[in-house]
Amino acid sequence: MRASTLRRVIVGSAAALVAVTLTAGPAWAAPKEPPTPKFGPSIDDYAPDETPGKCLDKVEQPGVAAFRDFVLPLYPGTSNGGIHACSGFEHNEGRAWDWMVDADDAEDKAVAEVVLDWLLAEDRYGNDHAMARRLGIKYIIWNRRYLPLTEGADHDWVAYTADNPHTDHVHFSFSWAGARKQTTWWNARLEPDRLLRSHDHDADRPSVRTFSTGDDFWQVIAWRAPSGRTDPEGGGRTVTG
Ligand SMILES: [Zn+2]
After folding, report:
1. Structure confidence by residue, pLDDT tens digits, 149-195
2. Residues 125, 139: one domain?
């Protein structure tokens, strides 16, 4: 009875945990990627190609400032290069950010690249450049290269040959939606795992706890043997209460 009940355990995809092993290298620790909120499958399109207008009075758009304030505390060796500047670009309107990292410094370069890789990775739903799109990033310039993330563009790094080679900072330009916090990074996060139902074990049945994360639901089933130990044959994730 116990075993057959326990073999019906269902553990859904949302419960997956991933262990990451970082290899030893230089004296500094390999940088970690930023924490990723949970999202459902819906995602923003690539950014519209909105040409920056004339320079506004000093202003920092909220989505840009919040991205800056998200990144900087994660990487204390890096610094803020500013949002607003009458320099052309989206800085004119407070919808670009310069993140000061040195392409000629190995640690800085590793930090920049772990963040760029995180922004541009494919998500679990198969969306390319997922975090960049959710944030409304329109293009990136870094270390003599330029990556357009606008609708209809080839979303590939190309050589950047303008005067400033961007070897001392990463430039992020944002769409107006991203700058205004109207993209899914800001408005479509899933709630953390929520406990929907709980049934405590009794003489004939294991305990069953049903959780949800957005569209996914999953169950944790545990049989507490009369001795008080959790039956290790339970499979999946067990809780001992
Ligand atoms: Zn810039």
Report:
1. 999 999 999 999 999 999 999 999 999 999 999 999 999 887 666 67
2. yes
Reply yes or no on whether the pLDDT at 229 is more than 60. no
Q: What angle do CA 115, 119, 122 make, to 5 degrees?
A: 130
- Name the more confident of 100 and 235: 100
Note whether 183 and 120 are same-domain residues. Answer: yes
- pTM of the predicted structure, to 2 decimals: 0.72
Q: 57-93, pLDDT tens digit by residue?
A: 989 999 999 999 999 999 999 999 999 999 989 999 9
Cα(64) to centroid(ligand 1), Å: 12
Query: How much distance in Å is there from the Cα of 106 to the middle of ligand 1?
Result: 22
Find the length of the chain.
Answer: 241
Rounded CA separation 61/149 (Å): 19
What is the Å distance from ligand 1's center to 172 Cα? 7
- Residue 29 within any structural domain of the chain: no
Task: For residue 27, report the distance from its CA to the centre of ligand 1, in Å.
Answer: 30
How far apart are the CA of 97 and the centre of ligand 1, in A?
A: 6
User: Domain containing 230: what range?
Assistant: 2-16+191-234
Pair 118, 8 in one domain: no
Distance between Cα 82 and ligand 1 center (Å): 8
Q: Near ion ligand 1, which residues have CB within 5 Å?
A: 98, 171
Q: How many domains does the chain have?
A: 2
| Cβ neighbourhood burial of 134 (10 Å; 0-12, 13-18, 19+) | buried
Nearest to 179 by CA among 74, 86, 120, 96: 96
53 in any annotated domain: no
